[in-house]
Specification:
Number of domains: 2
CATH class of the largest domain: Alpha Beta
Distance between the termini: 62 Å
Shape: globular
Number of helices: 15
CATH superfamily of the largest domain: Vaccinia Virus protein VP39
Strand order of the largest sheet: 5-4-3-6-7-9-8
Largest sheet: 7 strands, mixed
CATH topology of the largest domain: Rossmann fold
Strand content: 15-25%
Helix content: 25-40%
Radius of gyration: 21 Å
Length: 375
């Protein structure tokens, strides 16, 4: 029998393999648990609670790749769900999840199973079996499970998907991205936004294959993962209108988001490179994010949700100020000073939760550089 440890995360006590706390890279055997995913689970709790509150009813929650149940047991213990379905093919992981459920006195609200993830989702794809909320948190890409998740989700239900193959989504391996997600990735300064938009796009295409659509709720990234949350709706035509491309000029740094590829830079006239097809609409939904704020369990999760509210309606893609200043050979000024200078010139300028040293602005690249030089 392997050694176990009991830790507290949020309001929940979790029983996890001791090796996952000791080793730098958490091992997959005997069962996978990543301590660095605490913030991701904090946000998950807040968004699920906010979604449920906005819906006005208790929800069913399915976790086909639950691991030791860190996310699903926290959702069961810290939100007002009706029932949580905890599934993992690994028997050791399910036993740990059961032990955590008993420890937190939520065992009666849980159902446990050991199926392959797609098999589990397909068992819940029929009428009256579908989930209000589905969490996809695989080891790597969620792409193999997106269609099954759409089939197992109710209309107006929410799918949450996490990707840990950041190098693929951020343009380091574009050919792999095309193969997995059906989209070209691009290694730009705003690659984390490209990653999120590719993920949303992949879920949108999965939904549209069933004549359904999506509506984004919330997304965030770290160096370990990219995560999206989206509502499944019956609006495939509206969804298709939010699919397009990012065209980027590596000569001057200008970028355009449009339904079609813009082959020539609109600022300097040089040839561009493109990412897509991907999601070109909003990344956040105000009503659910505002509700989620009420349930944020930590200061960090609250800051992410508050930041997202500030970005709604802001220009798409962001500029990393340190990178631009480095290219100009000048020291980077404080972000607050740059934002103030841009706003005084009549431009929109806000921070982004996708990069702490970046801003969104509708100023041209040329104008932004001019302001940075004079800041």
């Amino acid at each position: 029998m392997f050694q176990q440890s009991t830790i507290k995360e949020g309001k929940t006590e979790l029983i996890v393999p001791d090796s996952s706390l000791r080793e730098k890279v958490p091992p997959r055997d005997p069962a996978f648990f990543n301590p660095l995913g605490a913030l991701k689970r904090d946000v998950l709790v807040a968004v699920v609670a906010g979604y449920s509150a906005n819906l006005g009813s208790k929800i069913s929650y399915g976790d086909p790749l639950a691991g030791v149940g860190a996310g699903s047991i926290r959702v069961c213990n810290e939100t007002d769900v009706r029932r949580v379905y905890v599934n993992d093919l690994n028997p050791e992981a399910i036993e740990l999840a059961k032990a955590s459920a008993k420890l937190n006195d939520v065992y009666r609200k849980c159902s446990f199973s050991r199926y392959e993830a797609n098999d589990f989702l397909l068992k819940h794809s029929g009428p009256h079996k579908r989930f209000d909320c589905i969490e996809l948190d695989p080891f790597g890409s969620p792409a193999p499970f997106l269609e099954s998740a759409v089939r197992a989700c109710k209309i107006k239900g929410m799918v949450s998907a996490t990707a840990t193959d950041g190098a693929v989504l951020c343009g380091v391996h574009p050919e792999v991205c095309l193969r997995k997600y059906g989209s070209n990735s691009l290694n730009t300064e705003y690659c984390h936004e490209v990653a999120v938009r590719i993920l949303y796009g992949a879920l949108a295409f999965a939904a549209m294959r069933f004549d359904l659509g999506i509506s984004p709720v919330f997304a965030h990234t770290t160096k370990h993962y990219a995560k999206i949350n989206a509502i499944i709706n019956a609006k495939p035509v509206l969804t298709s209108k939010e699919i397009g491309h990012v065209s980027h000029c590596f000569s001057c740094g200008a970028r355009t988001i449009d339904k079609t590829i813009i082959a020539k830079c609109q600022e300097c006239g040089k040839k561009t490179k493109s990412a897509g097809p991907l999601w070109i609409g909003e990344l956040f939904e105000r009503q659910i994010v505002e509700k989620s704020l009420e349930f944020a369990p930590t200061k960090s999760s609250k800051q992410l949700l508050e930041g997202a509210l500030n970005e709604i309606g802001a220009p798409k893609t962001y500029f990393v100020i340190d990178k631009i200043c480095d290219n100009l050979g000048i020291p980077p000024p404080p972000l607050s000073k740059i934002i103030s200078a841009l706003q005084k010139k009549g431009f929109r300028a806000v921070r982004t939760i996708l990069n702490p040293r970046a801003i969104r602005t509708d100023a041209t690249t040329i104008k932004l550089k001019e302001i940075l030089k004079s800041a």
